[in-house]
Amino acid sequence: MVINLKYYVITIVAIFLAIGIGIFIGIMLDGQDLIVEQQKEIVAQLESKFDEFKIKQDSLQEKIDLLTLEKNKSEKFINTIYPELVKDKLKDLNVIVLETSEHYDYSGINDAFKKAGVRSVTNIIMKESNDEELSALAEEFNLSGDSKEDLQIKIINKFCNVLISGNDIEFIKKLKEKKIIDYTDELVGPADYIVIAGGSIDEQKSILHKIDIPMITYLKSKNIPVVAVEKLEVAYSNIDEYKKLRISTVDNVDTIMGKISMLMVVSGQEGHFGEKETAESLVPEGFIKAD
């Protein structure tokens, strides 16, 4: 019987293939055990890390709870002494708060001034107006300008002059009648101090350039003391621009601390106070005008 060479080759290949498959299966079985062990180690490490994280989280939460408790105590203490701290510090002053935007509510400022014993405080809100309304108003009061911008400045100057002089109060009433401004308290003049309550809603800060800066420029030219205030949260802060106009600023007037700072500035302190990056101090050193 003659054995074909092809038969030997196929047999040898089959043997080696069987051996290779056996080795592969053995390696796979050992590898699976290794993978299982590695997975167990990873799970153990994760559990250990989680326990550490949980301990740190609990520790941080305890610190947060303690800080919150201290904060609440501090706020309660400040709220308790606040009325006595500011009582009668600003007697005999007529103060006008000019809200240059309808988008931020500064009505709480009035109560702070009342606690400080001012003679009067009036909150005036500057409302958005169109060119036709301004042109009609200018014509009625014989105001003229070379451009719309110039005419607007003339109206602002007239408005500010009435506030600080107490004369021509009909102009203020006409502005309210035309819904260019609004106020509820009795308007008592002349104003001894002006508070500009601002904050922009657009990156271009259109209201700042259209209203705030012309007002501040005119009031400074008449040597009327001005302070600019903002809330902690505004879309775009105007504090930097106010600082360039060389007036004092308070950037957290919606807090008790900010209200006290504002009252101290009105008493005669100068500087830039609050909690934003533009602030130079947290609060003034105290009231200047004593009883």
UniProtKB/TrEMBL annotation:
Residues 36-63 form a coiled coil. The chain crosses the membrane at residues 7-29. Keywords: Coiled coil, Membrane, Transmembrane, Transmembrane helix. The keyword Coiled coil applies. InterPro entries: MctB (IPR021522). This is Copper transporter. It comes from Crassaminicella indica. The lineage of its organism: Bacteria, Bacillati, Bacillota, Clostridia, Eubacteriales.
